[in-house]
Amino acid sequence: MDINEPMINEEIRDREVRVIGADGGQLGIMSTRAAMELAEQHGLDLVKIVPTAQPPVCKLMDYDKYRYEQSKREREMRKNQRIVTLKEVQLSATIEENDVQTKFKNAVKFLEDGDKVKVSIRFRGRQIAHADIGLKIMQDFASRIEPYGSVERRPLLEGRHMIMVLAPKAEKKSFAEKSQQRKAKDAATQAGKEQPAAAREPKPQPKKKVRRESENMV
């Protein structure tokens, strides 16, 4: 028997138990045999839910249905869980600006997806003697990324590698800010709907001259 599974029916060896009905109502203390007979009458199982109580607490339930629903809830929780992965962006001590821009865009994409970013520089040959250059590159990269993420681990030199870890920046907007943004968006949408309607308004037409009957007389 799995130690994480509760005892049910014949597995319960206690002399007496406190019984809770399927609807949550208290049925009182009774012998385990009487509790099992009651469960059988209702087509349910007797499940020990609080084994440490004196006497132990048991509940009447459809245990197979209970296990199925519990398993379903656990699957839903796992499905909705966001798994954060550690992506990597590699820089260099001699990196050019256009390459920095490319690495920056990649890092922003990773952060916006909710992942952390490991930024690394590998020093080749004598470059290790000028690790301060790599540190300036790291600091510059961190300042560029500031609107999208924060430094979780500052740049540290490990052997020939300098490593920094960035984490997504949590969005912290007040209810007032969210409400203001929503109102501005609604106003812009409404203005967009009203503008074409105004454009369709007919232009005023010149009044036609009405000839009087006397003008037609010779």
Can you tell me about this structure?
The chain is α/β, with parallel strands linked by helices. Among the domains are: 9-77, Translation initiation factor 3 (IF-3), N-terminal domain (Ubiquitin-like (UB roll)); 86-168, Translation initiation factor 3 (IF-3), C-terminal domain (Translation Initiation Factor IF3), CATH 3.30.110.10. It has five helices and eight strands. It has helices spanning 32-41, 63-80, 97-112, 131-145, 175-199, and strands at 16-20, 26-31, 45-50, 57-61, 86-91, 116-122, 149-158, 161-168. The strands form two sheets. Strands 2-1-4-3 form a four-stranded mixed sheet. It has a four-stranded mixed sheet with strand order 5-6-8-7, with helices on one face. A hairpin with a 2-residue loop joins β7 (149-158) and β8. The longest helix has 25 residues, at 175-199. It is elongated, with a radius of gyration of 37 Å. Mean pLDDT is 81; it is low at 195-200 and 212-218.
Outline of this structure?
This protein is 39% helix and 24% strand. With 218 residues, it is of the alpha/beta class. It starts with 15 loop residues before the first strand and ends in a 19-residue tail after the last helix.
Beta percentage is: 15-25%
Look at the structure and name the CATH superfamily of the domain at 86-168: Translation initiation factor 3 (IF-3), C-terminal domain
Give the helix/strand class: alpha/beta
Choose one word for the global shape.
elongated
> How is the main sheet built?
4 strands, mixed
* Order of strands, widest sheet: 2-1-4-3
CATH topology of the domain at 86-168: Translation Initiation Factor IF3
What is the CA–CA distance across the termini?
121 Å
What is Rg?
37 Å
**CATH architecture term of the domain at 86-168:** 2-Layer Sandwich
Question: What oligomeric arrangement do these chains adopt?
Answer: single chain
**Helix-strand topology string:** EEHEEHEHEHEEH
